[in-house]
Amino acid sequence: MELLEGIRTRRSIRKFKDTPVPRDVVLKAVDSAKYYPSWKNTETARFMLIENKDLKRKIADCVLGFTHNTEIINNAPSLIVVLTIKGRSGYERDGRPTTSKGSHFESFDAGLATQNLMLSLHNEGVGSVVLGIYDEEKIKALLDLDDTYSISCLLPIGYKVEDAICPARHTNEEFLIIK
Question: Where is 128: in which H helix or E strand?
Answer without folding.
Answer: strand 126-128
